[in-house]
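Here is an idea for our session: we take a single protein and study its fold together. To get us started, please write out a protein record for me. Once you have written the record down, we can walk along the chain together.
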Amino acid sequence: MSSSQTLLARSSQATFADSGDDDDASTTDDSDSDATLEDDPAIARQRKVKEDVKQVDQMMEILFQYYTALTTSTTLETRHNAVERLIDQFHSIILPTYRSRHPQFLIFHFAQSDPIIVDQFVTSCVSVLLDKKQSPVLRHSAAAYFSGFVGRGAHVAPSVVHDCLDLLCDQLTSLRKTYEPSCTHGADLKRYGDFYAVFQAILYIFCFRWRDIASASSDLDEDDDLIDTNE
């Protein structure tokens, strides 16, 4: 072998050796980087949140499948018992839970499946809202869920929206008359919490269903005009 060939062979071996060292170093760096990411509390929290969200989604999917089979049963008793169970669980578990964000959509979905169930769920929330024996927290939560269901429910009829607003406005007027004589120091969220909860419910429903409210008002005006004309 010539001297030039010998030098070339040695150079190639050195290059391969350096390349192997670089690969080892790169692998080590990647491992160190992964270990650093795993040790980062913020990254760990994000990963935990993603895992929790995935589990909640899976549980919600199972519940939707379970109650879909029950609420579409050909047996009236099965459908009735399923709805009763959902409403009971809403009032015993979801309503008292602070800032519940997902499970309520289960009852919101199935409560719109039939006009009778819509009335049944709305009535159950109104009964809590008007019951002075219930704690203020429960009454205010009932007002919030009630307005969310009526305001955002795609299958809640305009007539139901109108009736619910009438009820809330009557309740607001009653509360105003009760609190007004003693209201000498201005706004007080703790003292007049019921008034603010009902007022907020009215505003929420109005924001999302104002077209239905305006349409109902127009129909009433037309009926009044027709009565006047006939007279």
